[in-house]
Amino acid sequence: MVPMQPPFPFVPGEYRVRLAEAAWERAQCTALRRAVFCDEQRVFVGSDRDDIDAAALPIAAIACTAGMPDQVVGTVRIHETAAGEWFGSRLAVHRDLRGVAWIGTELIRHAVGTARARGCTRFLAHVQSQNATLFHRLAWQTLREIDLHGRPHHLMAADLSAYPHRSRTDVAVFPVARRAA
Ligand SMILES: CC(C)(COP(=O)(O)OP(=O)(O)OC[C@H]1O[C@@H](n2cnc3c(N)ncnc32)[C@H](O)[C@@H]1OP(=O)(O)O)[C@@H](O)C(=O)NCCC(=O)NCCS
Questions:
Q1: Ligand 1 mutation target, pool 77, 106, 134, most atoms within 8 A of CB
Q2: Among protein residues, the one whose CA lies closest to atom 36 of ligand 1
Q3: Dist. CA 83 → ligand 1 center (Å)
Q4: Separation in Å, CA 7 to CA 3, 28, 117, 157
Q5: What's the gap between Cα 13 and its chain centre?
Q6: β 140-148/57-65 pair status
């Protein structure tokens, strides 16, 4: 089955990363997650939504067209699991835009910075093992390796000193040059 993501024929030159509050942003986050975790990776069947979504804060990376936010191309969600302890999950970037625009990196920065601004003292994630190197480079450490959803994962913790607070109204805007072929 072909993943249900409209193709991106070009690399947009500007992105915004922010809490997804508008209905269209949340709907596109949900659609992107389904495309990545159901259609592409086949980790879930039909929907990857779960009880955590009721409490989690979704974050969106939005590609701009002519300077205006236009399409969600990346997402992650964060939620508090105990006093001060937060988890990030469902990190996903449109497959046509991976490795070319720092979208995943900026989503991770926004996720941890947003949680810090809300009192986070420990930030954890179950990271698919193939992505552990990306997180190590961003000042995360592996606590242990585990199997989750039938796939190898690292339980990882962020070094919070590497992540400045980001308030609710913070929007990261980053222009990008395409990676040389
Ligand atoms: C994991 C994932 C979210 C990463 O997103 P991403 O947008 O590709 O991440 P980034 O672009 O920030 O970083 C990826 C690589 O591209 C490089 N890169 C990004 N933009 C670049 C640019 N303009 N020029 C040169 N290199 C660039 C980064 O250095 C990094 O290199 P590395 O592979 O050596 O670490 C994405 O691959 C994805 O959605 N995977 C499928 C879903 C998934 O596995 N989710 C589970 C996450 S635990």
A1: 134
A2: 93
A3: 31
A4: 10, 14, 35, 33
A5: 19
A6: unpaired
| 36, 30 Cβ separation under 8 angstroms | no
Helix (H), strand (E) at residue 57: strand 57-65
| Distance of CA 86 from the midpoint of ligand 1 (Å) | 22
Task: Fill in the amino acid letter for 2.
Answer: V
pTM: 0.94
The string of pLDDT tens digits covering residues 47-103 is: 999 999 999 999 999 999 888 899 999 999 999 999 999 999 999 999 999 998 999
Alpha carbon nearest to ligand 1 atom 30, residue = 99
Domains of the chain: 14-168 (3.40.630.30)
Distance (Å) from CA 134 to ligand 1 centroid: 7
- The answer to whether residues 82 and 115 touch, using CB atoms and an 8 Å cutoff, is no
The Å distance, Cα 23 to ligand 1 centre, comes to 27
Collapse the DSSP code of 83 into the 3-class scheme (helix H, G, I; strand E, B; otherwise coil) and give the result: coil
Distance of CA 137 to the CA centre of its chain: 16
